[in-house]
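>> Question from a student workshop board

For tomorrow's exercise we were told to take the sequence and the ligand below, predict the bound structure, and bring the output to class. My setup keeps failing. Could a helper post the expected result so I can at least see what it should look like? The ligand is heme C.
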Amino acid sequence: MKKLMMIVFAVGMFGLFLSSCGEAPPKKMTVNIENGKVIYDKACIACHWKGVAGAAALTDTPRWETIAAKGMDTIHQHSITGFQGEYGVMPERGTCTACSDQDMYDAIGYMLKQAGVSAK
Ligand code: HEC
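>> Workshop helper replied:
Here is what the output should look like for this input. Compare the format with yours to find the bug.
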């Protein structure tokens, strides 16, 4: 009987272990605006300041609202992998090969803030 209890206990713990792994929520990224400005000034300004080559200009709030409506995860992903939209081509990481995923996230956060748009 004792042995059976041990097995039930062990199986239960294993199940708990599995479910806690499977359901762990993805870590939510947060924007570091100061770093975002540094990255923007270095890697995004050429296209995104005035809206060169079809990029959304920093002052183009309606455009950034449409972009933000896709959700932060989606547009972050697009900025990393590159994105072909109806206006032009957003190159992979804006050609900043040294930029990390976090750098990209921060730069997007910075641009949205400049445009006066809050992302989802
Ligand atoms: C060579 C020009 C260029 C550079 C440099 C550039 N972008 Fe872009 N980006 C574009 C263009 C063009 C689009 C618009 C694509 C479309 O919607 O047709 C765009 C769109 C985007 C979008 C919206 C994606 C979507 O899903 O609508 C994000 C976010 C973005 N850029 C972030 C960045 C960040 C961050 C940097 C700097 C690290 C950067 N871009 C640098 C050209 C550029």
